Amino acid sequence: MKPETRDALLQAYFGLQRVVFDLYAASEAAFENDDLNDASLLGSRADKLYEEVENLDVLLIEMEGE
Fold it and tell me: Which residue from 47, 43, 15, 48 is spatially nearest to 29, judged by alpha carbons?
């Protein structure tokens, strides 16, 4: 893998991690304010993006081995 590609994937990985953290924090805040629909929506989006973070992690690990 070219260094530029690795760097782009790492930037995406860390950027998505930040977004996931923010969404979980917003979900928790909504839950604490009894906005259950919003909390659920934010949490489910965070879960979906977290899956992508995990997929990027696996991809980066696999590509490092090549």
Answer: 43
3-state DSSP call for residue 3? Answer: helix
**Residue 13 structure tokens:** 């990985």
Note whether 10 and 60 are within 8 A (CB).
yes
Residue 46 in contact with residue 18, Cβ under 8 Å?
Answer: no
In 3D space, the residue among 40, 45, 19, 12 whose CA is nearest the CA of residue 28 turns out to be: 40
Taking residues 41-52, what's their average pLDDT? 98
- Rounded to the nearest integer, the mean pLDDT of the chain is 95
CA 62 to chain centre: 19
